[in-house]
Amino acid sequence: MAFSDVYSPPTPPPLTKYDVFISFNGKDTRNGFTSHLHSALCRNQIETFIDYRIEKGGEIWEELVQAIRDSSVYLVIFSEHYASSKWCLRELAEIIELTNMMEKGHHRIIPVFYRIEPTHVRKQTGSYYNVFADYDRNLNYRLVRQWRKALFHAANISGFEYQPHHSRTESDLIEGIVQMIVRKLDQKYTNELRSPFIHDQNYACIESVLSHSKEVRTIGIWGMGGIGKTTIAAAIFQEFSPKYEGSCFLANVREESSRHGLNYIFNRLLSELLHEHVHITTPKIVSSAIIRRLRRKKVFIVLDDVNTSEFLENLLGVGQDYLGLGSKVIVTTRDKHVFLSRSVDHIHEVMEMNEENSLKLFSLNAFNRNHPPENGYWDLSKRALAYARGNPLALKVLGSFLHSKTEKEWDNALTKLKRIPNADIQKVLRLSFNELDDTEKDIFLDIACFFKGEEKEKVIRILNECGFFADIGIRNLLDKALISIATNKSIQMHDLLQEMGHKIVCEESLKNPGKRSRVWHPDEICDILKNDKGSATIETIYLDMTERTEICISSDALRKMPKLRLLAFANNNGYGQKRVDYTLSLSTNLELPNDLRYIQWDGCPLKSLSTTSWPSKLVELSMPYSDLEKLWDEPLNFPSLELIYLASSKQMIECPDLSGAPNLKEVWVNGCDKLTHLHPSILSLPKLSGLCVFGCTELKSLSCTTCSPSLRDVVAYNCPNLQEFSIPISKDNSHINLHLRSTALKQLPSSIVHLQNLDNFSFPINDLLMDLPEKFTNQIILSDPDNHECDTVATLSTILPSPMFHYLKELKFDRCPSLTELPDNISLLSSLLLITIHDTNIMTFPESIKNFPRLKLLFICHCERLQLVPELPPSLQAFKAWDCKSLRTVSSSREQLKRQQGTTFAFLNCVKLEEESCFTILKDSIVRAEAQQQSPRLEENRNEEFIDDYGDSFLSEHDVSVGKVCYFLPIRGSKLDDLFHHCSSQNSISIQLPLSSNFSGFIFYLVVPPVQPCDKGDIEMSFGFECYLETSWVQRIHKASSCSLRWRNCVYIGFQMNLLSDHVLLWYDSQCCKQIMEIIRGRKAIDDDDNNANLEVKFFARLPNKEEVVIKECGIRWIYTNMEKDSRGCRFKRSRQVFELEEKGLESDDAGEELVPPAKKFKHSLMEVESVENLRKKLEQLLHIQFDGGSPIS
């Protein structure tokens, strides 16, 4: 690695002698405005050079030059006679020359136009005209030209203007100037904190909130211990506090208040804000004099590590209500509940650092450089990152600890962490645990040692039966950031917090695992079970069977654990298969402790458990993939049992009588190949809500005399021998999901023909469906007919006009290999919003598909003979084709384009798409994005199109992001450069925004490489970007956007996310564009001459397991408003180099300004530049003026 990559801790810039140098004409302002301004600067402890500080007898010019070089900020006060002073012009020329040699040097100049128009200074007109006319006649041309350029340059910098007729007073002007100088000095001297600090998305989000609010605001920063709350708050405080009249950072409020009490904290806050000693006996009683003073001050406050809502109420009960306009309060806490008892305007949850920033922060601490050396330390660093999992505290502690150690020592230390956690990290994390009550601690430890990754409702159900009040307990753990809920509703816990839970349990008995409350280590569990080393202390056992091939359970092992509540022998991969085989040594009569609430035994090798003593308190029995033939012989009493899960138990032939389980809600026996019938007692249970028997290939009958009034789901598809379905479902119980597709039913069950408003219904394609009534169901899934000799297409064409289909909202085809085409009359289904087609042999769609008036979503999966997608309906907002490996041609749909709330088109692994079709799809995407940019009409569409219950929630349920255009497809050819103005071969791009007044937004793209199948069950890939707008008025505004491509549908169970080739994502976010454009337009309204704005965009892509995907390429395309206004006169030209619009009346309002085509098409040749430059010089000499534009290009 190059030596230049070595990191040195940030050091302050060299201290200059003066903070500010004032250049002014004494005749105009010395005894008035300048003297008042100088006094204000001195009152604010700003060291200022003014000309009367020149020592007598000294060389005046040399001292002025030295003062200029010894100053940080240059305040130039342009007045009526400023140009009359050659001293002033020489000072200004020296300042411009000096700042031109610095990076962003013009940011150090503050022009003040005092009783003079800026244009008079810029163009040397008005009172400056005659002065310079005289200079042109009598002075050297080069000197005069230098002065003109200096005036032109300085007058183009954003500053302050004062005119007598303005409502703004001189005192207001002086206050504004002082505040700007303070900000610039703070930017110059602010250190990035003493230790390395990464400006990540957390910092940027809070910065953005602060930048966009002029009211009094309280912002909460919340997250787990060590996640960086205090560090972020400190960095924000350093950046923003100098812009306020008063500020206070109260660190460690939790600790300080416990030591000194609330009054001490409150008095310290008031004293720092008011810059004097204040003593208040109670925060509830504050003198009116102090309140008045606070109300007049705009202040910035940070309250760090607040742990009670009462404390915040007492402080902000006075603070927020009595702070001056524009004041800001930042509160950091580990407990979200602190924010919920009063009005906190914005709560930001601090997220884990991404992999890139984690590596950088770790490397800065471990190597004093931005990334590890290219040797063995790289892989070791990845291990450290995997351990820290984005926690900044852990990254810093580990990096500092491993600094300067050998590779062998690194390996040893990282291996040790698996058994002995780092004490410094644990100390910080344990503070949150210590604040929990006893039942909350039990819940936390049960999750850490047993339930991590399990469904939230399941955990709550079981722990409530353990007496832990889990509903409120889980909520409190969430508020304290000790757990989180994933998108699939499972409970997750950071690895460091889980490690802390393990450490707490181990401390119960350091040497004897059998005397701990919870055990999870495979070796320790096997030793306890085999050698009877358990005790009455043990409450939970979780054994990962994938790490053991032999298990021995002695006859007395479980008898010694009377308090055992949770028992799991976990051994599955989630898709109905065993992961490993193992041998089991077990006594004949297995006695289970009566306190057991939960039993999980994946792949149980026993044939029967009929002699087992079952616990009466059992809540859930989970024994999937087992070798069980039956559970028990006689009815048993299970008053608390709510769920039985026996999926994929291939040998099961009998499902027992469950009449002794009156609270049973769910029974899962799907995939039990030898099961021929269910005991009638099951469907009669009063609280049964769900029965899953799908994939039971020998199941012949589902029948009972009475039906549970609670029944909501009967899932019996893929039961090819199911010939009888006689469950008497009540008409009052209509809102159910009933799946009977891929069965052998010869007629419609009489028990269902009277039903209406089923949530979901599935059945084979069959003439019988014609007998179902209108409004029978909102959605139907159709499968192949059970009679393989019938004509599937003809049958489908016959049944589609029948009553049941009139009001259908969703139509799905699942595993219909005999379906080779969709009939034309499918367009009769005018109410359809969604069509899903999975595993069929269709080759195209009927042309009539474009006539669907309300179709929003069209999903196609594993239709490997599909070759052509014709023009689609204009109402369509999402089209997803996945693994359609013969798809070649996609027709354009932009002729009938309607503006949509959001659009998602994906062609995942459609690897045979022709290059021309790919180009067509990309052009359609750009047209859609540019059309959506017209927000007023978009709002009209929102009101017109969704007049029923199927609105935004329906779209979001199917992952269509409102306000975004997302297109994803295999990349073909090399035409991306032709479609976009700027491209990069990295994962980020930084460019200057166009100057055109017609510029209104932007479209992004990125390219990702092939991806191997992900080992997570979710079929999803997420994308996002961090967008930073940097302006010439020293602002850095952050915006973020994200989107996900998901396939969340029952027909995709078991598939995995992968990419077979390079894919491109095109992406437009209307909200992000709108916010950035509002900022730019707002600033231009204040200063029309301020045009410099730079956009920096950083992209990411992630798999379901959160693994980062490489970004191979990215780019940006500008959007201009008049493209839409004159769209009828615009069309795409197909060319290797061109993606241009034929311009018909698209000239810019500003002469010479190009609107749309890529910048690279309009580079001037060197000869053209030189000729223009020579002409400009001649005109300047003849007319004695300075042209605004300078050189025609930069």
From TrEMBL:
UniProt domain TIR: residue ranges: 16-185
Q: Which SMART domains match?
A: AAA (SM00382), TIR (SM00255)
InterPro entries linked: AAA+_ATPase, Apaf_helical, Disease_R_plants, Leu-rich_rpt_3, LRR_dom_sf, NB-ARC, P-loop_NTPase, TIR_dom
Alphabetical UniProt keywords? Leucine-rich repeat, NAD, Plant defense, Repeat
Gene3D superfamilies recorded for this chain?
A: Helical domain of apoptotic protease-activating factors, P-loop containing nucleotide triphosphate hydrolases, Ribonuclease Inhibitor, Toll/interleukin-1 receptor homology (TIR) domain
Q: Which GO terms describe its molecular function?
A: ADP binding
Q: Which GO terms describe its biological process?
A: defense response; signal transduction
Q: Which Pfam families match?
A: LRR_3 (PF07725), NB-ARC (PF00931), TIR (PF01582), WHD_ROQ1 (PF23282)
Top-rank lineage group of the source organism: Eukaryota
| Name the UniProt record assigns to this protein | Disease resistance protein RPV1-like
- What gene is it encoded by? LOC107464284
